[in-house]
Request: fold
Amino acid sequence: MIKVGQSKQQIDTPALVIDRQKLMTNLNFMQDFANKQGKQLRPHAKTHKCTQLAKLQKQTGAIGICATKVGEAEVLVTKGITGVLLTSPVVTPQKIQRLVQLVQKESGIMVVVDQAENAQALSQASLQAGTTLKVLVDIDPGVHRTGTSYANALTLGKLLHELPGLSLQGLQCYAGNLQHIHDFNDRKTASSLAMQKASDVLAQFKKENLPCTILTGTGTGTYDIDSQVDLVTEIQPGSYTVMDQEYANIQWQNLQAFNPFQPAMTLLTTVISANHESHVTVDAGLKSLYIDQTPPRIISHPHLSYDWGGFGDEHGKITSDGTGTLPKVGEVLELIVPHCDPTINLFDQFYITEGDTITDIWPIDLRGKSQ
Reply:
């Protein structure tokens, strides 16, 4: 059993490690940026899945926390997190019932809506429970995942305003499909257009005297772009907390190359077999490292690569570019994961470190909350 005070090198693998100093640098940078832009920060817990980290975000100045699933919101509320926004529609009778029960515990919960039938079901459930449910119109910026069209948003907004048991708060417009566009200028053009169109919808709401104080959206790849749109009131980035290789590979605003966020989270994996000149085998396979088009980046050993290589669920393949020495059995490699969100969902805990020392262990207590 690994304990606080022990060395990072003693952690059994595979394991996720968070450098606390780098984490706090990321949290403070994003909060300071939002403050300077006059925007609220409501970061997304879908990335880190950890109420301990969500509490840090709130302590740093976040107005609330975003979640995708009712199960995530239930854990957040149980742990005392307020200002939770569910960024995906809640439509099944079971989940709607759980949602209104949650509102009875924490009245500040909000949920997005993208179609009339769901709005009516939420209204009926809210009335039966004696609650008032805060709702936002979800706009589809072109992802075609959830959300109503820009053109139909006003009609839906009027319905939400009229239905009893519901309280219209504003709009959500999240363009997840734009977050990893490599070129900064291309990303800026696409995201600015999407959020300006949402801003125009907000102006329509105000013209019709609909209560609409929130326009929320954006992600780690577009936080600095979308914040330039005047009527955007809050941003909801997620990956900025720990970062990953996908975000490390995109161009950022300063010189189109500077990434303001540090790779706070790394994965440790141990070499368990080294019987071949071409490669060695580590103990982190697909059950520990979410497969992606972007490969992980090994930072502990130069000139080595993690090769998806078809090694399966439990094992990974490490190769050399010809100039690096392959590690021996028992050596621990440290790498930046390709995509932090689904990789985190494979683990039970984070080991928090300062320097080489373990200072805390945080449960990933939203893990598996997919309902």
Summary: The chain is about 30% helix and 20% strand.
